[in-house]
Write a structure and sequence with these properties.
Blueprint: H1 5-15, E1 19-22, H2 31-40, E2 46-51, H3 56-65, E3 69-72, H4 76-88, E4 93-94, H5 98-105
Parallel strand pairs: 1-2, 2-3, 3-4
Length: 107
């Protein structure tokens, strides 16, 4: 566990994990910035966001940044493991909050 986005990016680059779980709201470099930096550097680590942000702008920004999963913290117990498994299988996972599912199906 790290304390801010820059440290998260550094740790991911250093340890090269298969998957990392990040929050969007982190001190310094936010989670979206971390993912953009990692993708720019062609880092293979799959990223799953675990966040309180339910607004469609956050979801769209997360997917556009290159995230592989998006799980709401209130759905963590029922969805986080599945989201990680989906990301590792090369598939995208978006939390089952009704408004999020509707947005995803319209794409």
């Amino acid at each position: 566990m790290v304390g801010d986005g820059s440290k998260a990016a550094d740790a991911i680059k250093r340890f090269d994990p298969d998957v990392a779980v990040l929050d969007i709201s982190m001190p310094g470099l936010d989670g979206l910035g971390v993912v953009r930096e990692l993708r720019r550097e062609r880092c293979r680590t799959r990223i799953v966001f675990l966040t309180i942000h339910e607004h469609e702008d956050y979801i769209s920004a997360a997917i556009a940044s290159g995230a592989d999963g998006y799980v709401l913290k209130r759905r963590m117990r029922s969805e986080l493991i599945h989201a990680i498994e989906e990301a590792l299988a090369g598939r995208r996972f978006v939390s089952s909050y009704p408004a999020i599912r509707e947005q995803e199906s319209q794409r």
